[in-house]
Structures are given as C-alpha cells and as structure tokens.
Design brief:
Elements lengths: L1 H22 L2 E7 L6 H20 L8 E7 L4 H13 L5 E3 L4 H14 L3 E3 L14 E3 L4 H14 L4 E7 L2 H14 L5 E8 L7 H8 L6 E5 L4 H11 L6 E3 L6 H7 L7 E4 L15 H15 L5 H20 L4 H9 L4 E2 L4 E2 L15 E6 L2 E4 L2
Parallel strand pairs: 1-2, 1-3, 3-4, 4-5, 6-7, 6-8, 8-9
Antiparallel strand pairs: 10-13, 11-12, 13-14
C-alpha cells in the first residue's frame, strides 16, 4: 500500500512538474536603441513589441504559454548591445532574440548568438547582417543594397546619371556607401562627389557646399539614420540647394519630417508600404496588415507609425509563427521554422526565406515615396 501511494505521489509530482513547465513563459529577449541617436528607431520598436505581446497574451499566448519580453536599452551603443546580449543568453535564458535596432548593435550581438545557437531576428538594415548567411541570424528590414538600387531606378527614370553621395560614418551609413558604390555601374550611375558626416554632427554645410560646387552633379543621395539625415536636410534647405535629394530607408519615420521641417518637402526615399497604407489599392495583399498595424499603434500611443515599429511587428510575428510551427521553443526547431517562412505578409513586404536568404524580401517590397506638404505620398 505504501509503495502504491509513493507511486501515486511520484506521478502527481511529475504531472505538476510538467504542468509548471507547460505554463512557463516563452522568453523573448530584445536589445533596442530606445535612447541615443537611434532613439526614433528604437522607441517605436519597443512600443510595438510591448503592444503585440500584450495582445498575444490576452488571446491566450502561444502554445498555451504567455510571452515574457526581456528588453534592454543599449542607448545606441554597440558595446552595450554586446553586454546586454550576453545577459539575455546567460542570465535571462531567453528562447530567442528580436532586435538590434542598428547595424552596429546587431553586428556586436551576432557572435554571441551564433556561439550560443539561439535564433536572432535583427531589426537593422545593412546587408552584412545576412550576407554571408549566418545560421542563427535573420532580419526583417530591406537592405541598404536594395535601397540604393531602388533609388537608382528612380534616378534613371528622371534622367539623372551623375550624383553625389553623402554617407554617415556609422555602420549603416558605411555599409550603405559601400553598397551604393557597388551597384552604381549596374544602373548607369556615376558617383562624382563623395562625402561623409558623423551621426552627432550639428552642421553638415561644409560637405553640402562641396557637393553644391561640384560641376555636373544632378542629384544627391544621403545614407544614414536617426537625427543625422534631418540635420543634412535642414542644412540643404538653408543652402537653398536645388539638387533633387534622396534619402535611404533609414529615415522612414514621421520624426524625420518633424526634425527636417519644410526642407523635407520633395525628398524621395524607398520605404515600406506601411507609411502609405491609406493610399494602397484595395487588392494590395499588404493593405489589411499595414492598416491593422497602423490603427492599433495609433490607438495605443496616439502617434504616427514608422517603418521601424513595423520591422519589430514583422520580427515578432515571424518568431511567433515559427514557434507555433515548431510546436515548441526548442531553439534548433524554431531556427529551422524561421528559415522556412514562406508567404508571410508583413509591414515590410511578403517574406519568403530560404537557407540562402535570411531576409526573404525582394525589390518589389520597397515603395518609392516623396514627402509633400509634410506627409508621405507615393512618388510619381
């Protein structure tokens, strides 16, 4: 009889242990640039993760488990991103990571996640994040190479072939500079003026004056993110420059327009459909997704959406869908499921990943936008 009760107690204890395990939260780690020069990227990213994890938990969670977000602010500092990633892996024991905001932070995180073999979905732009392909690393935003190609396509349509390039000396800016040079000849573009600026520079008129005085320049491409491109745009306006000006997808935020003021009118850039959700055709497959995200974000935070928050939405949903398909949080199974993502309609485009493509977007995912009257419009 005693042996019988011991067996029953043992089974009950085992059942309780399994029950506790089943109820343990799924831990999603995140390192984002909520403060510092990249804050207007990181702020909507953290808000988006909090918003949608709250929604998912309110609907019962994933695999019957709630999601716990463990997030740190790296202050736009890559060294801090490295330290926080180590903490997420070793102390917090997260199941996967969504974010790095910037290319610099992401590349500081990559060696740690690769060594720990933990799935990592970056929210940063540079092509170096996914080329060459890294087994455990994925990303949601369009690449800097794609941005350069989309801009060059538009330049050629407008008859521009000789341009100036002004790139930030950040990881994103320098990768963008490299890619802009790399695909220029393919599109019949000559870069005849080439300048750089710092992300914290308060004035870029020296570089812009050199560009203004370069004979033959037909258009200007600026490659950077955060506040720097807004400083460039304001200085551009102050110098009364008449060159058509293009920015990269690193400025796809209402904050850029606010910081740039009237000088932003006429700026063209490649960006996700999210910024022009209301003018998309009814049959556009992204329309329901971007309209839904826009409404949810505006209702909650009483502010305009940015593509950066959209990148976080896409990263979270790709991760959640992968966990569902894997049927567990086993890291190898989740990694495989992320890599097998097909036909996912996100704010950035329709995602089709493969073992050789850990982003899954093509050039059609970009829309060419123009800022008019302080707002986003589809470029014509």
């Amino acid at each position: 009889m005693l042996k019988h009760w011991v067996q029953i107690a043992g089974v009950a204890a085992l059942a309780m242990a399994f029950g506790a395990q089943a109820q343990a939260p799924i831990k999603i780690g995140s390192v984002l640039s909520v403060t510092g020069p990249a804050a207007f990227l990181g702020d909507p990213e953290i808000k988006t993760l909090q918003l949608y994890i709250g929604k998912i938990n309110g609907e019962g969670g994933v695999l019957g488990r709630k999601i716990e977000l463990v997030s740190y602010d790296d202050g736009s500092d890559a060294n801090k991103a490295n330290g926080f990633t180590k903490r997420l892996i070793e102390e917090d024991k997260v199941d996967l990571i969504v974010g790095g905001t910037t290319t610099g932070s992401t590349m500081a995180m990559v060696p740690l996640v690769e060594k720990a073999e933990i799935p990592f979905i970056s929210l940063a732009g540079a092509v170096v994040i996914v080329e060459p392909t890294k087994k455990w690393v994925f990303k949601t935003p369009h690449t800097d190479r794609m941005a350069a190609e989309k801009v060059y396509e538009d330049m050629k349509k407008r008859g521009f072939s000789k341009i100036a390039l002004l790139a930030e000396n950040s990881g994103f800016g320098q990768s963008g500079k490299k890619e802009s040079h790399g695909v220029a000849a393919k599109h019949g573009i000559q870069i005849i003026a080439d300048e750089t600026y710092g992300p914290k520079d308060a004035d870029v008129t020296t570089q812009l004056t050199k560009i203004k005085n370069t004979p033959g320049v037909q258009a200007l491409l600026v490659f950077g993110f955060g506040q720097g491109p807004a400083v460039v745009t304001k200085n551009y306006g102050q110098l009364a420059m008449k060159l058509p000006i293009y920015q990269s997808h690193g400025v796809a935020s209402e904050e850029y327009i606010k910081l740039s003021g009237k000088a932003a009118n006429g700026v063209r850039l490649p960006a996700a459909a999210l910024l022009v959700a209301n003018v998309l055709p009814k049959n556009d497959p992204q329309k329901p997704v971007v309209m839904g995200y826009s409404k949810a974000y505006r209702d909650r935070f009483k502010s305009e959406v940015s593509t950066f928050g959209g990148h976080a939405y896409d990263g979270l949903m790709i991760a959640v869908n992968a966990i569902k398909r894997a049927g567990s949080t086993d890291k190898a199974k989740v990694r495989d499921a992320i890599e097998q993502t097909k036909g996912f309609v996100g704010t950035g485009g329709v995602v089709n990943m493969s073992p050789n493509d850990h982003m899954g977007l093509d050039l059609s995912a970009f829309r060419m936008l123009e800022i008019r009257n302080g707002g986003w419009t589809l470029a014509k």
